[in-house]
Specification:
Helix content: 10-25%
Shape: globular
Structural class: alpha+beta
Order of helices and strands: EEEEHEEEEEEEEH
Number of strands: 12
Number of helices: 2
Strand order of the largest sheet: 1-2
Strand content: 15-25%
Low-confidence stretches: none
Length: 169
């Protein structure tokens, strides 16, 4: 549905300049990442907001038609754009206060009313498709998540008790 409507992105690979066409969604059961990007390097984050909103609305509409819904409280988004930092000689992520600080992406919530989605900074990590990540690629958040899971498991094993008939030989 989304690809047929023109959503998604295309890019050239850095090494051999091959065209990569990516479908706009990565899905697993009820967890989906919708990707929308500009069509040229000359488009800024501000330029693609209309297509990002259209992609979000289309996806939410498609889910609704099939009897499902998107919970805005469990949803979030990043608006990713870069600016050249001449002082350090490298590209850096634009922060929310530099990139449409008042822009709100909205979708129909579970009640059918339009609701805003949480917008995150490029270094704010969130769990998606079972992995805690952020565009800025700091692995610390995912490691902390894994430590938390491990500690919970250790506590459950430590405080649990197995009878000899609980174990299958």
């Amino acid at each position: 549905m989304m690809v047929a409507l023109g959503f998604g992105f295309e890019c050239l690979t850095a090494i051999d300049s091959r065209l990569v066409t990516a479908q706009c969604c990565f899905c697993f059961v009820d967890d989906t990442d919708v990707i929308e990007a500009g069509t040229s390097v000359d488009q800024s984050g501000e330029d693609i907001c209309t297509s990002v909103q259209a992609a979000a609305s289309t996806w939410a509409g498609g889910i609704s038609v099939t009897g499902g819904g998107i919970n805005p409280k469990k949803s979030f988004w990043w608006l990713i754009d870069f600016v050249w930092d001449a002082r350090n000689g490298r590209w850096k992520f634009r922060r929310k206060n530099q990139l449409l600080p008042d822009y709100h992406l909205q979708i129909p919530g579970l009640s059918g009313k339009q609701e805003g989605l949480r917008r995150l900074e490029p270094d704010e990590a969130e769990k998606t498709l079972g992995v805690v990540l952020a565009p800025l690629e700091d692995p610390k958040a995912h490691l902390e998540y894994l430590k938390g899971i491990t500690k919970k498991w250790v506590e459950q094993v430590r405080s649990g008790h197995l009878h000899k008939y609980d174990v299958i030989p």
